[in-house]
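Technical annex B. To support the medicinal chemistry partners, we prepared a structural model of the target in complex with iron/sulfur cluster, based solely on the information shown next.
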Amino acid sequence: MDSFVLEPDTAQSLSKVSRGYSDQSMITTGMEEVRKNRPRTSGKRSKAQVAGVRHLIVLLGDQLDRSSAAFDGFDPAADIVWMCEARDESTRVPVSLPRIVMFLSAMRHFREKLESEGVQVIYHELQKNHRSLSETLSKDIDALAPQRVIIVEPGEWGIRESLRTVCPASLLDERIDRHFLCSHEEFEKHSHGRKQLRMEFFYREIRRKHEVLLDEEGEPEGGEWNYDAENRKSFGREGPGRLAMATPVAFAPDAITQKVIAEVIAEFPDNPGRLDDFDWPVTREQSLEALKDFIEHRLSAFGDHQDAMWTGEPWLFHSRISAALNLKLLNPKEVIDRAERAYRKGRAPLASVEGFIRQILGWREYVRGVYWRHMPQYLERNQLSAHEPLPEFFWTGDTSMRCLSECVGQTLRYGYAHHIQRLMVTGLFCLMLGVDPKEVHRWYLAVYVDAVEWVELPNTLGMSQYADGGVMASKPYIATGRYIERMSNYCAGCRFDPAQSTGEKACPFTTLYWDFLQRHESMLRANPRMGLQVKNLARLDTKQRAAIAQQAQQLRRSLRAPKSSS
Ligand SMILES: Cc1cc2nc3c(=O)[nH]c(=O)nc-3n(C[C@H](O)[C@H](O)[C@H](O)COP(=O)(O)OP(=O)(O)OC[C@H]3O[C@@H](n4cnc5c(N)ncnc54)[C@H](O)[C@@H]3O)c2cc1C
Ligand code: SF4
């Protein structure tokens, strides 16, 4: 429902104000033009119309939360919400089609919800002439002259800086993001005086603070803080089918999403990815349904199999709620509470529930803390001096390495891969090949429906690429093709052999593993957690080492060539 009742003479231009300026001049002609086209709500002149805008509430695409601090003290008669589909968000890297649709569809559904409540929304739909968020906002602030501009702290460092530049400090009211369970101050307090940050210690603290999965004495339920050792099972030869996996609930595109899909295809014909399978939750109601579906049907098996992979099975026992969480359609505390309740009612085992809660209460809050503590320098880190380009098949999935064609193919098709596919297939390959971490970061930020910089960057640059030299992870996560063979059925359908490091059938992962150990031997020797792997390297004689180095070089050369097929 539209919240505006239009005066006849201003109807045409006002529809541009409420639905997004389809003509750039609408926002450049200044205060007079905006006043002339003033909206009216429910037949009554609002305070905003009589005295100008009191508060301009700026909502970013990942701030779709009606209970956020942005709405504290909100007066629908005096305040206006401002939203913008910034084109440069989709073009500064070739963002995948599922990710663009995810954000725009969720934003437009949120606008509709606000308008149905009588909230006035200035909404800039995707258009060729809207280049940047800050440029568009700057013009609207000039035109509307609000008394205050209210924003919840943005999740991305660069956006926060540009909004602070655009909006004069005297106008700006930047509020904390209550979505998170750990504030910046709390994370600083936790980090203070520690030589090294480790998620496990952070996790224990935050679990105690929020009283999650504790017994009556305030100790961890079941006696252990962490059941990770029970969370690494593969599916065995029979595959996941024997576990009666329920297909996750899907959300067929409604009229709003269909319109977004049509516009996105027209606007970004060359961007990667596909949209024929788009079925992500794009509203809070749908997100709650997706969460319920996961808790009832997949949470109980999540723990055992969270690291396992299987051809043609993108979802397995994962929750598919990361995008809903990151866009703030779901609140992490409600997700944690529902998982804990399933355990208390005997509907899911402790190892599964703890494993799931650890991802959200532990990892998700922890990476946010790392991001804000280390930005903006973090983005520049390249500890391993990696400078290879990202192989072209990352944008097409066209490679004869079965594990990579499966994980990249699935990523482009759905905008999704689970954690181990990201860490131990695509990420591992880039790390051992020596790809420039900035290029790896740009790819991860572009292709996943849940990609937002504060969570993506520490996972990519730190956890997966070790480019931060150990801020996130205590060692580089490296492995031969044998790891992938153990955790999936990918190798069974591959022309390479994970046991071989040289020769025609050599698995590129296995070649690159030994090559990585050789190239970084002295650095790795100093890391006690790498002792065994460095010791194994010492077993190779000079000839074997040279053959591996040569094979790795050949692989790099072939991948550098345009349109390579490895
Ligand atoms: C290189 C790399 C890049 C990543 N980029 C992103 C990203 O841009 N956005 C994103 O949300 N996650 C990212 N992750 C973390 C993780 O892969 C995804 O959160 C997860 O795969 C989402 O699928 P799901 O909702 O089915 O998660 P599940 O496996 O069901 O896990 C439940 C929830 O836990 C949280 N979670 C799990 N692992 C992590 C983690 N390592 N860090 C933070 N939160 C976590 C997510 O909110 C997720 O929805 C990345 C991981 C790696 C290794
Ligand atoms: S053999 Fe190597 S390249 Fe092929 S699927 Fe297995 S790990 Fe991947």
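Notes passed to the chemistry partners:
The two ends are 53 Å apart (CA to CA).
The chain has 25 helices and five strands.
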